[in-house]
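WARN no homologs supplied; continuing
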Amino acid sequence: MTTAHVRRARPADLPRVAQLAAEHAAYERAAPPAPDLADRLRALLFGTTAPRLHCVVAERADGEVVGYATCAPEVSTWGGREYLHVTPPPHK
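OK structure emitted
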């Protein structure tokens, strides 16, 4: 089994993250992501000093990004607390 290192996403990772998101959508039989998804993610993740979206990637030793997960802080009105909503890709 190959191991992967998990790290915060960088702007250069976003085309690969968008590709993985498209594979995720196909797996889920959902509509494909927007064609400009990498640019949209760039604005959300890196276009502000206080981003609401966060992304980590799994990177193999050879540098290939093989997975990602995004999360965004949310607030539970009923629970009166903040939590992270995580959207991981499916397991293959």
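The mean pLDDT is 89.
OK
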